[in-house]
Amino acid sequence: MVGYSQKTFGRNFNYTCNMFAPVGGTAKLGDIEASDDFYDSKIEFLTPDGANDTVDHPQLGTVTKSYKFWWAEDAAAKVRGWYLEDDTTGAYPMNDAEVGFGSAFCVTRVDSEPDCFLTYAGQVLNDPNGITLSFGRNFNYVGNCTPVGIVLGDIDASDDFYDSKIEFLTPDGANDKVNHPQLGTVTKSYKFWWAEDAAAKVRGWYLEDDTTGAYPMNDVPVGAGEAFCVTRVDSEPNCTITIPSAL
Questions:
Q1: Model-wide pTM > 0.90
Q2: Domain ranges of the chain
């Protein structure tokens, strides 16, 4: 089954991912389309590599390397699509850049474009076993890659997902701050750990500070296309999470 969905953004910083899988082949950046008023807004892929160059992100602080893209209609560039931020003349289209299924990014929406949106299109995966995501690095930006909302408890983790965490970054200007090991100082975030039955009150997700597993957080909503960061520790190289299929 194929479909499409439009994602609007109610705030300036929005963490999102494509809700659909590619119909054959590999998912590309050009599979994601932007509205005509998506001009000064940007999308940004944060990379967890230990690169020497850093980028100052307006909400996340200093990030170890990122890739930011702007959207161009035909009249503004060589072809309609996505371009690296530094390519201000639209000379080198990046529509063929690969975007791994489930990979997430940040949409930086400017105040002058309150109604801008992205359109995701592709195949709705139908697997009774769900969609399993594995992690080849320590910091992985992924999300609910389905077009339906779920709750945190719908996301299942492998038995070896113990010291690893999932973290939702919130773009609100909250007073409390959290030091993230790769992103630096983040304006408020919510980090969860996974517990099997024997380790907590019930099987599921708990806030990081709830070390005894007393207050399950399985009912926290996770919207369609909503993204988060998986912090995978070296001792759990094969850990996975599984998201239920939409069908």
A1: no
A2: 2-123, 131-243
